[in-house]
Amino acid sequence: MRVMMKRLMIGVAGVLGLALGTTQAGVFGDGTGFTYQGRLESNGAPLTDNVDFRFRLYDQPTGGGLVGSLTSSNVPVEGGVFAVGLDFGPVFYGAQRYLEIGVRLTSVGGTYQTLTPRQLIEPTPTAQFAMTAGTMDWFNLTSVPGDFADGVDDEGPWQLNGFRTYYNNGNVGIFTTSPQTALHIGNGPVGSPLLTPPSDLLIRTSSAVVELISDDHTGPGSTISFKRADGAGNLLDHWALFQDESFFRMSYGSGVGPDFNPVMLTLNRFGDLGLGVEEPEFKLHLVDNGVSVNTGSVVNGNTDLLIASQDSIIELVSTDQGGVGSTISFKELDGSGNLRDHWGIMRTTGPFGSFLQFTFGTNPAASSNPVMMSMRSSGAIGMGTTAPSARLDVRRTDANGTAIAGVNTGSGTVNVGVLGTSNQGYGVYGEATSTGGTNYGVLGRADGGASYGVFAMGRLAASGTKSFVIDHPTR
Fold it and tell me: Does 2.60.40.2060 match the CATH number of domain 2-132?
């Protein structure tokens, strides 16, 4: 094999040029391909066989940089003559190029044998004429459009200002022939409501996606700025939305850069939202100006909402047109996300005026659960009733139980379980209306020591059937 290939290298003659009548490229072809014709001899005789070729293009006769590389396999060689179509792409623009050829017999394969020296690719006469286009004067051109008649390329809709291109005579459209705004991208239908108020940029496609991608670096990345200027073009204020490493921020101020202004809002990668704080630690983290909070020492680790201010105030405002007014709900879910129970605090309006009510149950609506406690605008508090008639109105309707229990287990000398005082009326009033069993309007019990089930200072009176047992009268 090596002997045969050495013989192939002897007496190789290559003729480079454009082969007229071939399908690879004509003299006036508009592609970048051309035909290479050559002659191979072995031991002084023309070769007839199938040959594999490797063509490498360099910018120097020896060494230099590789411009392109092609292979052509199983090329028939008849009487030493062969023709191969080559296309290195747009690499011939006036600089010298040198072709290096490697050959091997197709039937043998193996390593290509490089033929030396490299061959300089010479231009054809037509190509020599084309090479003068780079220095052609405007006035030597024929059949040019009227806009080029003065020899200056300053006509047409687009204008040049140094390295800048501009157009000041109307709207510009991409994928549309009737742009509706200064820059209109897309060809989807656009109705007049979509352009109110008038727009400067319109993107109307099936998805209309705009992506901002910045390099990984410290400081603001992808940014959208909303700036307002006075009549002289001076900056008045600046809203900005920008990505800052793993945070998404909104800032406002009069600084030119987005990070020159105070941060109004921050969203981190965990979904925590901060207002007035640049690194939120809770799902909603609000901090007023001038307030410093050591969250590690004053905040429960399971907190989802933190409001830090000089006077933290939350207001719920509802109209008088709804069935239920302002409401706060406290709901617990089971492991499947279903409602387990529901405490509700709501302001509502009833027949006796405005109420603040506590409800409890398993209904998602606080107003649909039983009322545990009601507070009227008069200050009356009711438990077991939605219409309290006393300052504290406690009622039970079940078979057995205690409405109010007063228990004092202290060790002092004077301890009171229930104390009732009144300047006029009843200090303690008890009423029993059941017709069965034994019922007590007021029941007092005392065990041990100097204790009193019921103790009266002053007169003691009773109406109805009276029965008293006085074991140790003290007065």
Answer: yes
